[in-house]
Write a structure and sequence with these properties.
The chain is α+β, with helices and mostly antiparallel strands and 524 residues long. 32% of the residues lie in helices and 23% in strands.
Amino acid sequence: MELISLHFKGYEAMDESRVPILIGSGQITQREPDPARGLSPIDLTAAAVQKAADDSGAGSSLLQSLDTIVLLRSFSDTSWRFTCPFGTYSNPPKSLANRIGAENARSLVYTHPGGNMPQWCVNRMFEMITKGELEAAVIAGGEALATQKGAQRAGFQLDWSEDPGGNFDIWGVETRGWSDMEDRHKMAGAIFAYPMIENAIRGNRGRTIEQHGLAMGKLFSRFAKVAEDNPLADRRQGFTAEQIASVNPDNPYIGFPYTKLMNSNAFIDQAAAIILTSTKKARELGVPEEKWVYLHGCADAYDHWYLSDRINFHSSPAMSKVAREAFEMAECSLDDIGALDLYSCFPSAVQIACDEMGIDPDDKRGLTVTGGLPYFGGPGNNYVTHSIAEMMNTVRGNPGSKGLVTANGNYVTKQSAGIYSTERPNKPFKPKDPKIYQAEIDAERGPAVTEVANGKAVIETYTVMHDRKGPSFGILFGRLSDNSRFIANTPADPSLLADMTNNDYLGVAGMVSSSDGINVFTPE
């Protein structure tokens, strides 16, 4: 059906069956110390979906009307660090559908990994509604890593295996976030990549290690304060800047310069769900308009996939572009935003977002509505479902206001953003094709990469990974005399690794040599 070219009360009269809205939000935080009584990830997610349906006012009738179920990929299916020893779900979205009474849903989706995926899915599914491809859908996800870890420690056997049969679709990008070259040098995960980004930020700002540590602590203390007041948050102690920055047995380094309290808190039991429909479907289900939330602006883009190929490690052209495109689509500016939730897996993600979007880190609006991933909780790929759910509550509480949610996948790589409001837009939902602005980002490449590195070199950025005994190994990016970039490890010298955490090694000269595919950099 074509749009009617008439205007009524300032709005373009649109086909109500193709006007997308969010109508329900639900969140769960489980704090069950007994693993025998804890809910499984799918059971937690089902509980969150039920909450979202109840939040809309439509309840079970809404769940029976769902035609699409999108489930965010669990961390146990994402990373070797979180593999579940208690079995697997052969068709996770089908298991969820069975639990919520949505057996008639014709489209079942399980996403590829990425912290960007909840917002990415909202953007995509709003477009699908405008095209008449769906009427009612849920986006949900959940983790029970605290229960999983507790059972492992207690030697308690859980049964989280399930085979409901059937097939599902997969959305997103399958490509992992690191290259084979980076993998050989142990940079195979967020806890290895983000501290390298952070040290590059410190170098760009010209700070000492101590100065930057306190700056990170101050930044995240404001997140911790929001978590302190959020009953759904996992860590509600309200940590100070000094507590976050201080290195001690309770708050050790994970990957220098990050202490434990600067890392996303993955070992939690949390689930969230958001439900979207057309305005026509919402009316049919009896969902009151005060529950409706619109997406005014959105965008998706990605930086060069591998850190090795980036222009630098302290910026994100994709993040800047996504913000500009989202504001342009929403026909507003940062000044028009009443609430923010910036993706906060590590301090570097927040600092780069502030830089790229022109946000003051001390902005009086605050930078989170949840408390952020280290304090509210970092439920794998599903955190942004929580931030969208909470932003729905925020804008409903202040009708007509706008809220900005940002989402980040991999290592400041995949960027997504959404601007939400209860106010109805005066035009159809029609985001720009991301391919148009993605080409601009792709055109700018970093320095040439030398895979087998030998000769004189300097350190561009680095991290020192720690285990329970202290410094474990070092990873660095460096530049050779021809300005090409390489990745390397350091010698396994405990005194060197300790010194690299106490003294600044950015720009330090040395020699790099390669053997059996591994580059090793030795400082002079």
